[in-house]
Specification:
mainly alpha, 3 domains, 3-stranded mixed beta sheet, about 475 residues
């Protein structure tokens, strides 16, 4: 026991001496220098300890090598995964491109069924790309780690997710605005129908008789083989109905855009009179607006092409020109103007629509009503927008174009006349747009402005000009 203690004390002394002779820098000295200062026993002990340390180091190095091998394997799997994901991305983009091409082809010629199928395919591929994007982001988040990285990625994802919803909200707001205008338009039509159908006694019978006569005329127009004045009368009734419908929609959009309707009416009246004072009440603003629309769209009616060119066919070959006009009338009567312009956007009727739309709808008006000039840009480019507003305008444009074709089909053509401001009211040639109580209602009143023109036909019948009456000043 005493010898063991002695050996243990000697061991402590040797270790202490080694530490004093070779402090912390000893690990950086050359092993040969250290061995010069040591005894034989010290060398043996150090060799024993060094061997144990080297074994530990070898184990660590082996572990590190194994770790690198695992890491290399993980990286290889990561590369394979990314390559597979990129392949899926390229496949999805190619499929979306094919679907989008099909969607474009379905527009011309117009094929609603093919369009719906192509639209579903495009949306499906977009969703597939979205899923791949989220997979990639989650994978990158797991690899990078770190709170800041995760927060940054989450912030970007949140912004990109919210952006489409914000755009959708804006589109919905525009759609709500259009729907409100449609509701107001239908309300105006309902009020008009109620007023026309609400008359009692003889007035109601007269109205029913007039409507039945109009139906007979329309039926004649469908089967007539030659142009007759009755067809012209029925077509003029269609023009007046289309004019009222388009004007009601335009007025509803103005109110939705918070226009000063009184100022707009005064501006319209000032274009036809030097009188600054407005003669129209606020509840009759639609008549002033209808007057403005009709004045623009009937301008050039007496010329065979509305002065869109210098053609003189009606003078050089009158019989042939009349036959061609009536043939065009019969061909076009049953056609949807949108479908016709989709096939022949730059035909004579298409040019007429473009010219009159740009004349009626001022750029500032369009920007105020719709927030942009997209419809105007399409019209200037030779196209025809597929909007609800432009579709309503095409209904009026088609009715006027058919009336124009009929006018040049008749021999001789109808005489076109308008009532001027301040003119005396003549019951034979005029009718008031505001309901009057018998014949006494016109006493002391004169024409405020013409709402729509009148025509005198070859058979002696007269299509009365519609006028707005005001008290004589």
């Amino acid at each position: 026991m005493a010898s063991k203690v002695s050996n243990f004390s000697d061991l402590i002394q040797r270790v202490t001496a080694s530490c004093l002779l070779h402090p912390l820098a000893a690990g950086r000295h050359d092993p040969d220098e250290i061995s010069d200062h040591r005894t034989g026993d010290e060398s043996e002990d150090d060799h024993r300890y060094k061997t144990e340390d080297e074994e530990e180091d070898d184990e660590v190095e082996d572990g590190e090598r194994d770790g690198f091998r695992v890491l290399d394997g993980a990286r290889s799997e990561r590369v394979i995964e990314m390559e597979m994901m990129m392949g899926q991305v390229f496949d999805a983009v190619s499929a979306m491109k094919r679907a989008y091409v099909s969607l474009q082809e379905s527009h011309c010629p117009w094929d609603p069924d093919k369009m719906r199928v192509a639209d579903v395919a495009v949306v499906a591929e977009l969703r597939r790309l979205g899923v791949l994007r989220e997979r990639f982001r989650r994978s990158v988040g797991r690899e990078c780690g770190g709170r800041e990285r995760r927060l940054g990625t989450a912030g970007v994802t949140l912004r990109e997710v919210v952006a489409p919803y914000e755009a959708a909200v804006e589109e919905l707001k525009k759609e709500v605005k259009v729907r409100e205008a449609e509701v107001q338009n239908l309300t105006e039509k309902l009020k008009t129908a109620t007023r026309l159908g609400g008359g009692g006694g003889g007035g109601g019978k007269k109205g029913r008789s007039h409507q039945s006569k109009r139906k007979v005329s329309c039926s004649q127009a469908q089967v007539a083989a030659v142009p007759v004045p009755e067809i012209f009368e029925a077509t003029m009734s269609s023009v007046n109905e289309a004019s009222k419908s388009f004007t009601s929609l335009l007025l509803s959009l103005m109110r939705s855009a918070h226009w000063d309707i009184g100022a707009a009416v005064r501006s319209i009246e000032s274009a036809t009179s030097t009188t600054a004072e407005s003669a129209v009440g606020a509840h009759h603003a639609r008549y002033a607006l209808e007057s403005y629309v009709n004045r623009k769209i009937f301008q050039g009616f007496d010329h065979e092409t509305f002065y869109m060119d210098g053609s003189l066919s009606s003078l050089l070959h009158p019989d042939q020109f009349r036959r061609e006009c009536f043939t065009q009338y019969r061909d076009m009567k049953a056609m949807d103007p949108i479908e016709l312009l989709g096939i022949l956007p730059t035909c004579h009727f298409g040019k007429f629509c473009s010219k009159k739309f740009l004349s009626i709808v001022h750029p500032k008006m369009e920007e105020s009503l719709f927030g942009d000039l997209e419809q105007r840009r399409q019209v200037l480019a030779g196209n025809h927008p597929r909007s609800q507003f432009y579709g309503e305008f095409l209904g009026l444009a088609k009715a006027v174009w058919l009336l124009h074709l009929l006018a040049f089909s008749l021999d001789p053509p109808p005489s076109h006349f308008e009532a001027s401001r301040g003119a005396e009211f003549h019951l034979q040639y005029m009718e008031s747009v505001v309901r009057l109580s018998g014949g006494r209602g016109v006493v002391g009143q004169v024409v405020g402005f013409a709402v729509s023109p009148g025509f005198k036909l070859v058979n002696g019948s007269v299509i009365k000009a519609r006028v707005y009456l005001v008290p004589r000043t």
